[in-house]
Amino acid sequence: MLWEKPKCIKCDKEIKGEDMVFVKMRYPKRKGFTEIKAYLRNAGKFICEDCFEHKNT
Ligand SMILES: [Zn+2]
Questions:
Q1: Domain count, the chain
Q2: How far is the CA of 50 from the centre of ligand 1 (A)?
Q3: What 8-state DSSP symbol labels residue 44?
Q4: Ligand 1 centre and the CA of 12: distance in Å?
Q5: What pLDDT is recorded for position 55?
Q6: What is the per-residue pLDDT for 36?
Q7: What is the pLDDT of residues 26-45, one digit of tens each?
C-alpha cells in the first residue's frame, strides 16, 4: 500500500521535501523512536509553515 503524500491539514497543500512543517501527534507510548516514521504515517497530522504562522491571524 502506497503512502499518500503528506498534506497540510489546513490548506491541503502537499508537503514537499525539506519544507518546514509542524506535526501534531500523540506521543507514542512505546519506548524509543525506532518506529517513529511508521507512527507518523499513521498518526501524524502535518501543518505547513504558512498555516502555522498565520493560525492566530
Ligand atoms: Zn497549510
A1: 1
A2: 6
A3: -
A4: 6
A5: 67
A6: 77
A7: 877 766 666 777 787 788 89
